[in-house]
Amino acid sequence: MSKLSGLWVSWTGQQHRINKKLHDKYGCFVRTGPNEISVVDVSAIGSVLGASGLPKGEYYEARQDPSAPRNLVVLVGEPHANRRRLWNRGMSSDSLKDYEIVIAKRSQQLVEKLESERGPVDLGAWFGYFTFDFMGDMAFGGGFEMLRDGGDKAGLWHVLERFAVVAAVVSHIPWASRILHKIPFISGDLQRLRKVGVDSASSRLKAGASTKDLWYHLSDEAGLEKEPPLVKDVVADGALAILAGTDTTSAAMTSVFYFLLSNPECYTRVQTEVDTVYPKDEDALDASRHGGLSYLNACISEALRLHPPAATGGPRQVPRHSGGKVIADRFVPEGTQVYLPPYSLHRDARYFSNPEVFRPDRWLVPGEGEDLSAFIPFSYGPANCVGRNLARREMLMVVSLLVQKFKISFAKDFDAGAWPDTIRDHFVSTRGPLMVELEAR
């Protein structure tokens, strides 16, 4: 197989579907390109993604703007551990509690904007505005206000989506990244994103340390580090927070509602649970009650299983000059890029019974045929998604509040059966409109 096939598959966004078809036909080990394999085996998770697993390789270098500071995703070894320490503080249980008031404020704003809408609305687009505003609040102290404007007036969302497509393609030819990043439409997008980051950082620096947002922790405004982080590195990670935290969470919330509306009995159970935990006239904004939303939590996990936001994920690389590595009882030569795709793993009948069926109860009472260790929507190990718990809190609050405030149904002419086919995998995902009707309860 040539690199050209990988380029084309990444461009189309069909990598996750094609990958699964290959595994269905050839088994748990599939060669997907020169020096590149895909593995679908739960026993490979630790040896690929775990603490003693494989490092990141050229794939990630190609996704990085060569003229920009390196962000957390690209770093490896000690630099990654040092940067991750700042992120871990920003995503600790105490920090997440500090963020709840911001989640509640943006959730309430989302409801108010939806209440003012007439006719069918694209729920996925509104989730995008919500997550963009919220992550902007967290990373740079705000400033985007897509909810207020009712859209992406500055065009930033589309710039990020274009960059995601280009990055997915370039990752297959890392040697060409420096050349491709000089192409005008690519370099123009990168310069625009950098300017947004620098301008946002400047505003946040002027605001000072009055708010314990993500910037507060990434820039070590508490003074806990021996050496303060460089502002350019904080800006790089702030931009990463927006890219990684907007698309993934909005995609997940969109999928949750797609599956709930496609399975009315599940929607009814969620609504009953929400109405029990948050009685009438008590807005579903109190995160301390999220522990009572066990069925909604199960629905979120099931939606993440079927539609993981990073469907194929990024590969790890067997180090050169290492002599190779044994993965799931097979020898893999040095220099090989190894994918462990969540989409294919989550739909493998060896680990989940009736894997194509949306069945939230598998998370409440796991039965025979359920191996929940195969569930890796946020990756696994020391480089897993640091914002996974924040994303879950966002989803619990937003979904419970919308279910409490509205009776939601698919729009009259919306083709629900075709919607999953609109999902495109470019490491992060894009998707078509999820058109719904909203009726106040």
TrEMBL record:
Q: Name one Pfam family in it.
A: p450
Required co-factors: heme
Gene Ontology MF terms: heme binding; iron ion binding; monooxygenase activity; oxidoreductase activity, acting on paired donors, with incorporation or reduction of molecular oxygen
- Which keywords, in A-to-Z order, does the entry hold? Heme, Iron, Metal-binding, Monooxygenase, Oxidoreductase
Query: At which positions is heme bound?
Result: 385
Q: In which pathway does it act?
A: Secondary metabolite biosynthesis
Query: Which Gene3D superfamilies does UniProt cross-reference here?
Result: Cytochrome P450
* The family this protein is said to belong to: Belongs to the cytochrome P450 family.
Cross-referenced PANTHER family, in alphabetical order? CYTOCHROME P450, P450, PUTATIVE (EUROFUNG)-RELATED
Protein name per the record = Cytochrome P450
Q: Which organism is it from?
A: Hermanssonia centrifuga
